[in-house]
Design brief:
The chain has 86 residues and is of the alpha+beta class. It has one domain: TATA-Binding Protein (2-Layer Sandwich), CATH 3.30.310. The chain has a four-stranded antiparallel sheet with strand order 1-2-3-4, with helices on one face. The longest helix has 19 residues.
Length: 86
């Protein structure tokens, strides 16, 4: 059974809050299930709909050192959060 949009939004908000706490990545809810990511050395967005989640981010040279950690954290949290919904 697929995860409903409301549950997905809760999961994404928790992920974004965790990234904010760990990497000082600020995020803003733009409405329409879109979020903007901004921080020192990072710009990006998150788009969510009923069957797709798209996360894009541009990192400056200094943030590239954290790329692997950020990717792993996103993957780990999404896998953990969505495994019970599939």
């Amino acid at each position: 059974m697929p995860c409903d949009l409301a549950r997905s939004k809760v999961i994404i908000n928790q992920l974004l809050q965790d990234l904010s706490d760990k990497y000082h990545i600020n995020y803003e809810d733009l409405g329409n299930n879109q979020y903007q990511l901004k921080g020192s050395g990072i710009n990006g967005e998150v788009k969510l709909d009923h069957d797709e989640l798209v996360i894009t981010a541009k990192l400056n040279f200094m943030m590239l050192a954290f790329r692997s950690n950020i990717e792993k954290e996103i993957t780990r949290q999404l896998d953990k959060s969505f495994q019970d919904t599939v």
